[in-house]
Amino acid sequence: MSDTTLGTSGTGSPDGASLYDRDHPAPIIEPPRQRTAKSPGTRARGNFEMYGWLFMRLSGIVLVVLVIGHLLIQLVLDGGVSKIGFAFVAGRWASPWWQAWDLGMLWLAMLHGTNGLRTVVDDYAERPGTRMWLKGLLYTATVFTILLGTLVIFTFDPNIR
Amino acid sequence: MPAGTLYRGREGMWSWVAHRVTGVLIFFFLFVHVLDTALVRVSPEAYDDVVATYKTPVVALLEYGLVAAILFHALNGLRIIAVDFWSEGPRYQKQMLWSAVGIWVVLMAGALYPVLGHAFREVFGS
Hints:
Chain A: The chain crosses the membrane at residues 54-77, 137-156. Chain A: Keywords: Heme, Iron, Membrane, Metal-binding, Transmembrane, Transmembrane helix. Chain A: It is found in: Membrane. The complex is a heterodimer. Chain A is 58% helix and 0% strand. By secondary structure, chain A is an all-alpha fold. Chain A has two domains: 1-43, no CATH class; 48-155, 3 helical TM bundles of succinate and fumarate reductases, CATH 1.20.1300.10. The model of chain A is unreliable at 1-10 (pLDDT under 50). Chain B is mainly alpha-helical. Chain B has helices spanning 10-38, 44-54, 57-85, 93-124. Chain A binds chain B through residues 32, 57, 60-61, 63-64, 67-68, 71, 75-77, 80-82, 84-87, 89, 106, 109-110, 113-114, 116-117, 120, 123-124, 126, 141, 145, 148-149, 151-152, 155-157, 160-161, and chain B through 1-2, 4, 20, 23-24, 26-27, 30-31, 34-35, 37-38, 40-41, 43-44, 47-48, 51, 54-55, 60, 63, 67, 70-71, 74, 77-78, 80-81, 84-85, 111, 114-115, 117-118.
């Protein structure tokens, strides 16, 4: 950031030093939620957020194909939603191709959505306790849903009756 | 609300807001959708009963809304990727947003009959 009279504490000037000079005609505003010496958990988190950012973009591209294909099959082609039923599901999951399609869609969509909601919680829940509870609930629901969906795809039995 | 939530307005901010809102809506539907599909492990009747609600006119409208949310999130997501990875992306972010909205309108018009046709026939008779 700055090299002259500016501290690292944002717009304020607790020590009374002037915030303005020839090189700084306006006060510098810190980026929101920038980690400072006072914020909790200052130890470095490695590149986790960068990999999260990259994952959102890579999974997003794959999901565009998987989800729009899914919508076409389920809601548009061959009578739309009217043809969906147990027999239709059994017919599709008889093929490993569609099993893999749905499994990939489940995992990528859940992880993409969970990471998105994690960001939303971090942005809007200000108290650390609230954040912890909301994210705990989120991760619990995510693990449950991914495991349930995976189990259903792998153990599907067309002759359950 | 945290301070600074309302940012600069215009295309950049509102597309970001719409991306969040659609993303959260899609995520909540995803939970419900995995649960309803899991009923295939209970019995064919249980699954078919729940899927029957997906075929009612009111839920058909919700499905059209879901398609709207997914298509916007997909198209705007591709725009975000272009802004991040294409060197000219930030310069053309507005044009790309309006292109995405244009494609979205065309696709939504195309989805009208396939997604809502059966509901229309049920409500207004054949």
